[in-house]
# Entry
Amino acid sequence: MIEAEDVRKTYRIGKVDVPALRGVSLQIEKGEFVTIVGPSGSGKSTLFYILGGLTHADSGRVIIDGVDFTALSDSARTRLRRSKIGFVFQKFNLLPTLTAEGNIEIARDIAGHRGRSAEGVERITRLLGIEQRLEHRPSEMSGGEQQRVALARALVNQPAIVLADEPTGNLDSENSEIVLQMLRQSNQELGQTVLMITHNPEAATYGDRIIHMRDGSIVPPEKDPQWSHAHD
# Structure
């Protein structure tokens, strides 16, 4: 479902080249829930954006459901993202002028689902406990409620792949549990492939498999001191 082959990315900061990814290769099977952990600067977020087609790799390939993502034009990449991928970010990225319902519906509009049955919207908002908040704007909701709206927006079209970047980073333990449980439920019930970036060892355990990154590379767990310390 998701495959990376020798993916490399270097950022130019002033006159200095800073390698973010140093030849990362991985494979995530259809229906897997995989978490990527690592300290700040390990390259996990850069990898996330490249796998989601939100930024370009300098070299290497990304294969999404058998399609070479890196070989597509920008417009074809956008179409593939819309049809197959749902995104959840640490910063909720809700449109402030729209209600919760409007923020969810805009995802349906972009995917061409406007006018179809709203049963999926009702189910997801009920499961996330935000069905009573749909007429509220982001400024009228708590951080936990906003993240649940963002999660509903990502899941409403039942994408084959869900990419979540630190989805619990700004949440308390109660709301973190709600978001993680919903990701797990969508993975199990809908067969969605979930890839979650996190620095939280507890959140990482929700996945079927954990990938550790450090200094732009995938490493064994014992070479991730942050992870080892969390389990001392």
About this structure: The first helix runs from residue 44 to 51. The longest strand covers residues 16-28.
